[in-house]
Design a protein that fits this description.
By secondary structure, this protein is an alpha/beta fold. The protein has three domains: 2-126, Resolvase, N-terminal catalytic domain (Rossmann fold), CATH 3.40.50.1390; 153-271, Putative Large Serine Recombinase, Chain B, Domain 2 (Hect, E3 ligase catalytic domain fold); 274-464, no CATH class. It contains 16 helices and 16 strands. Strands 1, 2, 3, 4 and 5 form a five-stranded parallel beta sheet that branches. A four-stranded mixed beta sheet has the order 10-15-16-14. The protein has a three-stranded antiparallel beta sheet with strand order 11-12-13. Helix 7 (183-192) crosses helix 8.
């Protein structure tokens, strides 16, 4: 049985066929016919209130607030007509989309016009998107702001205006790059000085590259009418238009920066970035930020991915030879002492909180009983619904028992794992074994490895 809420609205000038009791009667008929429980606490009524906006509808707002709670309290919201939900199309589309996508709750009309009105809503949404895109194209062609302002600018009266605090930072970024500072160094210094991107994130080397290539800083507007923008690659659909805003960077400096960026790109491609497999690939994590340690440019050591991109402040550079030996030594010690940090795959496969689910089903039993006592269900309907929920509770209790049995068997699994690790280690130490094969073998029983550079130590998390 599914749980539903009902929303009912009636304005002061509505006729009797739109009265709360009439609407509720139609909704209850639909709920009963389609297998929904409709608890009294989930019946929301706004009387004598216009549906033009949601701002002054207390019952509606209360319903939306309850719908956002976890776990979701009901599976659907039932209406007599969609005009009861909202007469403002934009409100209707926004709230219905939010309920479906974020809460997993459907909005259902209890008359056959639902499909037609859904189609009308979809047409309106598509048409609205086209109108917005057309308006943005016109603004871009006039050289006006069409997106959120880039770092260094604000939007005032629809126009980009240099921010007195961050515009000088933009100038410093361009100057530092021309003075020979690397993208990672520039990003790290910005982060250390407390600066964040327009969206509140830390700067990375790719963020700095994007800024250095952004023509907005020389007074241009970059706009892709198709919406398929990828500013890391040339896009024939992207337009560069003279803007109406004040540049932060001169054309000469911008051109010089582009030459240097292109030169660096060619050199990087010449040096090559071929990825050769290595034993610990994808397994070792930085103890400071949790990012993966990846192959460094020299192909002989590992480095924290976030540090290499300017987001982590602690270098975790270590030679492949040294980290390989450290991991092998640690595994040998774990085998010798029979001590493993274990993570069991059975625990990872399910996110179900079974005791909570049992509690929810028990509450459904109470609601079914209330529905019977209030005359919503006949005795036969009550018995069928009650038995269905009881069967569900029995299934959940069996799952819970199985989980508890798995916990009791963990010691046996650890013993089996111990044997497996002993068999693998000679192969892991063999120089003849390919690195890719060693990596596959390690991933079959190691979840992750935390490397602490300050202690030159690793912590290994195994799994079954």
């Amino acid at each position: 049985m599914k749980t539903a809420a009902a929303y009912i609205r009636v304005s002061t000038d509505d006729q009797i066929e739109y009265s709360p009791s009439s609407q509720l009667e139609k909704i209850q008929e639909y709920a009963k016919k389609n297998g929904y429980i409709l608890p009294s606490e989930y019946i929301f009524i706004d009387e004598g209130i216009s549906g033009r906006t949601t701002a002054k509808r207390p019952a509606f707002n209360k319903m939306i607030g309850i719908a956002k709670t976890k776990p979701k309290p009901f599976d659907a919201i039932l209406l007599w007509k969609f005009s009861r939900f909202a007469r403002n199309r934009e409100d209707s589309i926004v709230y219905k989309s939010m309920l479906r996508k974020q809460c997993g709750i459907d909005v259902i009309m209890s008359v056959i016009m639902e499909a037609m009105i859904e189609a009308m809503d979809e047409y309106y949404s598509i048409n609205l998107g086209e109108e917005v895109r057309r308006g943005m194209n016109e603004k871009a062609n006039r050289g006006e702001a069409v997106t959120i302002p880039s770092f260094g600018y604000d939007i005032i009266d629809g126009k980009y205006v240099p921010n007195p605090e961050t515009a000088p930072v933009v100038k410093n970024i361009f100057a530092d790059f021309l003075d020979g500072k690397g993208l990672v160094t520039i990003a790290r210094e910005l982060n250390e000085n407390g600066y964040r991107t327009r969206r509140g994130n830390k700067f990375e080397n790719r963020t700095i590259r994007y800024m250095l290539k952004n023509p907005v800083y020389i007074g241009k507007i970059r706009w892709t009418p198709t919406g398929k923008a990828n500013h890391r690659k040339d896009n024939k659909d992207t337009l560069i238009i003279d803007g109406t805003h004040e540049p932060i960077i001169s054309q000469e400096i911008f051109d010089e920066v582009q030459k240097r960026l292109n030169k660096n790109t060619v050199r990087y491609m010449r040096e090559g970035s071929a990825k050769e497999p290595f034993m610990l690939q994808g397994l070792v994590r930085c103890s400071a930020c949790g990012a993966t340690l990846c192959m460094a440019v020299n192909h002989t050591s590992l480095q924290c991915y976030a540090y290499a991109h300017g987001k982590c402040n602690e270098s975790h550079s270590i030679s492949l030879k040294k980290i390989n030996a450290l991991v092998i030594e640690t595994i040998d010690r774990c085998i010798e002492n029979s001590e493993f940090n274990m993570e069991f795959t059975s625990e990872k496969k399910s996110d179900e909180n079974i005791p909570l689910l049992i509690s929810r089903e028990e509450k459904k039993l109470e609601r079914i009983k209330d529905a019977y006592e209030n005359g919503v269900y006949t005795l036969e309907e009550y018995r069928q619904s009650r038995d269905s929920v009881r069967n569900k509770i029995s299934e959940l209790e069996e799952k819970l028992h199985a989980q508890q049995s798995e916990i009791d068997d963990k010691q046996v699994l650890i013993q089996e794992f111990h044997k497996k690790a002993i068999e693998f280690m000679p192969l892991m130490k063999s120089p003849a074994m390919p690195e890719e094969t060693k990596n596959t073998m390690l991933k079959s029983f190691i979840r992750r490895i935390i490397f602490d550079r300050s202690k030159c130590d690793v912590e290994i998390f195994f799994y079954i």
